[in-house]
Amino acid sequence: MLNISVLNDPAFCSQSLNKYASLMACGNGYMGIRATHEEEYTHQTRGMYLAGLYHRAGRHETNELVNLPDIIGISLQLNGEYFSLLSGEILSWERQLNFANGELTRSVNWRSPDGACFRIDSRRFVSLDQLPLTAMQFSITPLDNAAKISLATGIDATQTNSGRQHLDEISVRVFDQHSLQGVYETQDGAIEIVISARCQLSQESECSFSAKNRRLTCHHALTVPQGQTVTLEKIVWVAHRRDKALSSETFARNALGELNACADRGYSALLHRSARAWQTRWNTCRVEVMAEAYQDQIALDYAVWHLTAMTPAHDERISIAAKGLTGEGYKGHVFWDTEIFLLPFHLFTHPQTARRLLRYRWLNLAGAREKARRNGWPGALFPWESAASGREETPEFAAINIRTGLRQKVASALAEHHIVADIAWAVVAYWQATHDDAFMRNEGLTLLTETATFWMGRATEVSGRLEIHDVIGPDEYTEHVNNNAYTNYLAHYNVANALKFMQQFGLQDNGFTEKATDFLARIWLPEADENGVIPQDDTFLSKPVIDLSQYKKDAGKQTILLDYSRAEVNEMQILKQADVVMLNYLLPERFDRQQCRANMNFYEPRTIHDSSLSKAIHGIVAARCGDTQKAYRFWRDGADIDLGSDPHSSDEGIHAAATGAIWSGAIQGFAGLQVLNGELHLSPALPLQWHRLTFPLQWQQTQLRVTIDSESVTIDSPAPVSLTLWGQWVTVNGQQTWRRNDFSLSVNGTATTGDKP
Fold it and tell me: CA Rg, the chain, in Å?
């Protein structure tokens, strides 16, 4: 049994309620439930979300991930007074998310304002074994005297997305003395949601039900003797559908049957089944580190937990929201984050999940083609923000400026076109890691050729060469520029691979081949200066430089926009996040260590890191350049984006891409994993704070296990696998240990080393 860490909420604090509601959210890729307390607090944002369940609330709104009716809330009265930790005295406190089995627990000893003492215990989990299932227990123990206890819980459909209501209440029903069911529908009638709940108390009580103001509630009242514990067990089944093949009555009845089958097993048995599923998951993807700071292991477990909980591995029609399933931030939309920051984890642990994430893009090609045509270009222009379809979901305007009363137009959807090449990059990365020819012949090649066709049509001819004008690169503080290096190089990579795989699979399209060959010969790739620095775009290097030190101290808060307008920032050498450095990371075969170091040294001082995506990429590139201590500082800062001391760091949900970056920083940074020209390379170098790093790695249908320490690398492979280790070609079959200094080989199997054949 792996010794998986836990995440602790150190103390009850009204300022950090929403931070920990996000960090400790439970989920399974189908459903996510924020870790709000059962009792109500004014500034606490409850949330339950189903992956892919979007709706537009009004004509001036955009599609957003719907915040569903609440099932967690419990109103508790103790001797006639409502329980709240804002009053009385907390005598002891423990709250933690157990990553090993997915259970969130809280235990509080509390003295009420009138002096009575109680222990309040709660447990809950979202099942990894049965996706629509969640279960909870809530226990009360009077410690010094008998107490009159009243509990009320059920299904609360007054939930909204920051005031926007998405659901119509279709019906609410009560069955027997324990079961409730609410049927809801999105206001456009497209999606039906059925929430079924069984509420059962461990002791006899007065029990009644009410349905009022969109709340369906079960009420219990009883007197509990001193020292005895009364427990409410609540099992919930959350089903939804677009397909209306079954009648509404049959669909609801089937959901109730599923609920009853689960409730009959009880909380403990259901948790045991879910825990076994989590154990299987941890065995195939956990990263273990022996480090001086135990927080480093917590960060790695936190990352893998949320990378699992946020990913809809069950449904290729859905992708990963920028906040996962932990909050309403970015309206639950899908960005380039998925392909660039989240897909690598799945690619090297569960490649079938990576395949499904790419099929989401393939299934939504129609919307990408339509956006390209609408803007006068061929091929496929993927939306900057996506939801359930291929249509662009980026809001046309940002918030209203309270000084001018005017809305500022959002430029991302208009010019941040690098997402097209990002998706193509991910398609190639998937094939390199899997050699899945079936995917590449069909979905992969279609994605590559459609995106390549876009770039060939998007380019502008200038004095005999092809340029790409009016774009925004990853650095969103620099807008509407020509020849952004990141965009041009990735477009070249996109077209080159489309042509390569067409030829590899023997597909003939002379018109495409001719255009692609011309594009590759004439597209302008910004060239490094005498110092090795690649210009970010045509004008960046001619802009003035300012001292950014005060703004870098507040990275992530965009404080520079308090002193300068966006237009002013656009005319200075100021980066929001990694751009050329990101290019160096994504295309390692094109840039050697010296070039990467030159670009890092030039651009990092000009980068504020106001994006949560920035520091981790700098850390990986720093590790590849041999500066592991700088890399570790970047990695640690990246982990602290959510896990740090800021009480509001993740109020609207975790930074999903940052969790992927925690994993990537360890594996692609310190373990030195790179794929160069389709071949696996490892060049490990641990920071001084880490003594050993162990992780599983899936590579072309073979499950490897890699252990790294300061002196050696041990690889365990059940089948022959060839790779480059510290620049030397090796083939491993069984378990081998290589020592860094002399490459002496401890063999428990067979291995060969030497030059690549």
Answer: 27
What Cα–Cα distance (Å) separates residue 536 from each residue in 395, 482, 578? 27, 10, 10
| Domain 6-285 bears CATH identifier 2.70.98.40 | yes
Residues 6+ away with beta carbon under 8 Å from 526:
483, 485, 488, 534, 535, 537
Q: Where in the chain is the domain with CATH 1.50.10.10?
A: 288-670
pLDDT at 751: 45
What's the whole-number average pLDDT of the chain? 95
Q: How many CA atoms lie within 13 A of 491 on its CB side?
A: 33
User: How would residue 588 be classed by pLDDT, with cut points 50, 70 and 90?
Assistant: very high
Q: How many CA atoms lie within 13 A of 640 on its CB side?
A: 13
> What are the C-alpha distances in Å from 545 to residues 306, 455, 542?
39, 32, 9
Half-sphere exposure of 220 (CA within 13 A, CB side): 26
Collapsed DSSP state (helix, strand, coil) of residue 123: strand
Q: Confirm or reject CATH 1.10.10.10 for domain 288-670, answering yes or no.
A: no
724 C-beta neighbours (distance < 10 Å), count: 16
Q: Name the segment(s) of the chain with CATH classification 2.70.98.40.
A: 6-285
The first and second tokens of residue 382, run together, are: 């993927």
Long-range contacts of 708-717 (CB under 8 A, 24+ apart): 708/670, 708/671, 708/684, 710/686, 711/739, 711/740, 711/741, 712/737, 712/738, 712/739, 712/740, 713/682, 713/684, 713/737, 713/738, 713/740, 714/738
Q: Quick one: CA dihedral 314, 315, 321, 326, positive or negative?
A: negative
* 484/521 Cα distance (integer angstroms): 18
For the beta carbon of residue 552, count every other beta carbon within 10 angstroms: 17
Nearest one of 380, 382, 384, 383 to 369, comparing CA atoms: 380
Reported as a single tens digit per residue, the pLDDT across 635-676 is 999 999 999 999 999 999 999 999 999 999 999 999 999 999
643 contacts 16 by C-beta, under 8 angstroms: no
Note the pLDDT tens digit of each residue in 33-84.
Answer: 999 999 999 999 999 999 999 999 988 889 999 999 999 999 999 999 999 9
The catalytic residues are 476
Residues 6+ apart with CB under 8 A from 445: 498, 501, 502, 505, 507
Contact 181, 211 (CB under 8 A): no
Name the one residue in this structure whose structure tokens are 């775009």.
Answer: 537
**Separation CA 696–CA 707 (nearest Å):** 9
Distance CA 476, CA 575 (A): 7
Phi-psi region of 256 (alpha: psi -120 to 50; beta: other; left: phi over 0): alpha
Beta bridge partners of 736: 715, 747
User: 104-118, 484-498, 553-567 — which is least confidently predicted?
Assistant: 553-567
Among residues 321, 343, 482, 506, which one has the least CA distance to residue 425?
A: 343
Length of the chain: 757
Could you tell me which of 170, 179, 169 has the C-alpha nearest to residue 259? Answer: 179
- Is the four-CA dihedral 543, 549, 554, 560 of positive or negative sign? negative
Does the pLDDT at position 745 exceed 90?
A: no
pLDDT of amino acid 14: 95
Contact 609, 598 (CB under 8 A): no
In DSSP terms, 92 is beta-bridged to 109
- Specify the amino acid at residue 337: D
Q: How far apart are CA 578 and CA 207, in angstroms?
A: 59
Are 450 and 368 contacting, i.e. CB atoms less than 8 angstroms apart? yes
Angle at 712 between CA 744 and CA 681, to 5 degrees: 95
**Tokens (6 digits) for 371:** 């956006």
- pLDDT > 80? residue 750: no
Residues contacting 377, CB < 8 A, separation 6+: 454, 457, 458
